[in-house]
Sequence to fold (295 residues):
Amino acid sequence: MPTTAAVTAPVEHVVEQIENAGPLDPVVKAVRKAVNATLRPRALRDGLHGVWLGHPLHPMLTDIPIGAWSAAAILDVVPGTGPAASTLIAVGCASAVPTAVTGLADWAQLHPPQQRVGLVHAAANLVGLSLYTSSLAARLAGKPVRGRLLGFAGLGAVMAGGYLGGHLAFRQSAGANHNADVLDLYPSGWQDLGAFDDLPDGKPTKRTVEGVDLLVVRRGQQIDVLADKCSHLSGPLSDGEFTSEGGHGCVTCPWHGSTFRLSDGAVVHGPATSPQQRFDTRIVNGRVEAKLPGS
Fold:
């Protein structure tokens, strides 16, 4: 009897090959260009990323089609539930469209290995959607057996896509908060960041405390300190641009354009949805000190 490791290893090997599949890059580039051209308005992109929600929107929406299609598969093995199963499949097909759009918006702002896996993830789900659409058409045409078979095939494709989506989220950390570890790594109490006069005015600067990189911005006599590692995909905010949004000082990540308010770390523009960790600051004898709030 094969062990769990023996069963999962070939699957992991396939996914690793997808991560490193350079031949997918021309397709990735073409699709990314089309997505960025279609979703050009920034307000639209922020909405699709889930900036307003404080959480990526795509994972929430995936529950609707997957739930509807899974329930339909259960009903397909129960006599006399054909109309209910057809309704659930229709709901799944309809909800798959906004789910795919939010997924593409997030996908377009990922690193190449993530985008390769995401491309295959989307392809598997597209196959699943096509099979479910055909299943619904067969059911409406009075061909229930064909409809059930197409539905089960569609569920298999969607489960394969779901596996890759889980790999993206949990193995490749797409959509995760990449500065959540600051709370565990930063030492407690006030920590020295150097002389106040050494900080340039209005320019993002990096300081490091026991291996934790901090973004420090001096504006006149005011000092703002945030975690330097962007919550989206760990971009260095200290290499970013100091900007102003709505009268508030902000910093824009140089990697994917996420913008954070300096005063509280709040997300102003995505693709990030998690805020930056903010630090309390003070000036003692001409030196800047920072600590985690409440530490």
